[in-house]
Design a protein that fits this description.
Length: 285
């Protein structure tokens, strides 16, 4: 596949992997590597079977493998602009692109979890329980107490939530636009199985900071403009949990950005009026 390589260029990537743009005489690929030859993360992506949708591509590996020192995945290069760059140039596109993203995401969520997968409620609560002790020095005690109470009152909602494929990193830089329409989902490296509605956490965490219109329409498109009656109860539970998990993740992997994330979670708390309301203010505006 990578015969007669003409150019190789290193691209930005996650801290635990290296990403390369590789051009041959006839094709363009993205190659990702991790310094762990036992890793199976690229194989797991390659095995995903996502329902086809006209005009939407998914950045999944064409080939994977290991050497003595690394594991690698070879991906197709997908052309286009990110949704972020499009909205910077033409913010009026937010409604249409949000609707298209929500509709496409619903197709991804049709994929059921493997039968042997532990229930979402058990895994979601276990992750929260792991994060909870590490937040003590990152958030005011009054908010920790309030969120603990709120989350405790809502945990029962998880017991009835389904176990399906989650992209788990749907944000404006992982969505491509070609010829004016959504054309691709990038980066399934964080994919998981669980409640599909958890994929909307990034709307409230990141999307709204650039385009509340996009975030609103992503939700509306997903539900065909008739948002489920209990969606906001479940969504607000996940947003309360993400206050903890985002702070803990940032401290662990990018400590210099902790003050930025602390401001972000305060905005989330305000969006939900101190978690006295389920539907965030940005959705109604």
């Amino acid at each position: 596949m990578l015969q007669t390589i003409q150019t190789v260029k290193r691209l930005p990537g996650r801290s635990n992997q290296t990403v390369w743009s590789v051009k041959t005489a006839t094709a363009h690929y993205i190659v990702k590597t991790v310094m762990d030859p036992t890793s199976r993360q690229y194989e797991r992506e390659a095995n995903l079977l996502i329902p086809e949708q006209h005009g939407i591509a998914h950045a999944l590996p064409l080939a994977t493998g290991q050497t003595a020192t690394i594991a690698y995945g070879i991906y197709p290069y997908l052309s286009g602009q990110t949704v972020r760059s499009v909205l910077q140039e033409t913010p009026e596109r937010a409604t249409e692109l949000g609707q298209e993203t929500g509709k496409a995401l619903k197709r991804i969520h049709e994929v059921p979890a493997p039968s042997e997968m532990t229930s979402w409620s058990i895994r979601c609560q276990a992750k929260h329980d792991r994060d909870r002790p590490a937040v003590e020095d990152l958030l005011a005690s009054e908010w920790i107490e309030r969120l603990d109470q709120f989350i405790g009152e809502r945990l029962a909602l998880l017991e009835t939530r389904p176990n399906h494929l989650q992209h788990d990193d749907v944000h404006l830089d992982n969505l491509l636009v070609q010829d004016g329409h959504l054309s691709a989902f990038l980066d399934y490296g964080n994919h998981d199985y669980g409640d599909p509605w958890h994929d909307f956490v990034k709307c409230g965490l990141f999307q709204v900071e650039m385009s509340p219109v996009f975030a609103r329409n992503m939700i509306n498109g997903y539900f065909e403009n008739e948002v489920s009656s209990n969606f906001w109860q479940v969504y607000s539970l996940y947003m309360a949990m993400v206050v903890f998990s985002s702070l803990v993740w940032t401290k662990r992997f990018d400590a210099s950005q902790v003050p930025v994330m602390q401001r972000r979670v305060q905005r989330i708390i305000q969006d939900h009026d101190g978690f006295r309301r389920d539907m965030p203010l940005w959705y109604e505006t």
